[in-house]
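User: What would this chain look like folded?
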Amino acid sequence: MSVSRSPTGALELPGDRTIQVVLIDREGRVLWRTDGVFTPEKGAALEQALGLPGT
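Assistant: Here's the prediction, encoded as structure tokens.
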């Protein structure tokens, strides 16, 4: 078994040319992810994933 020490490998990121945002819980599970330019829709999706009031 091989374990990647590279964040791009461990998180299966496509590379380092695009901004990546990944929300991970304490057990290492990916709860939410997105890439690219910020949009209000992406912000709302992150708020929902965080369980913020009003979402």
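Residues 40-50 form the longest helix (11 residues). If you want, I can go into more detail on any region.
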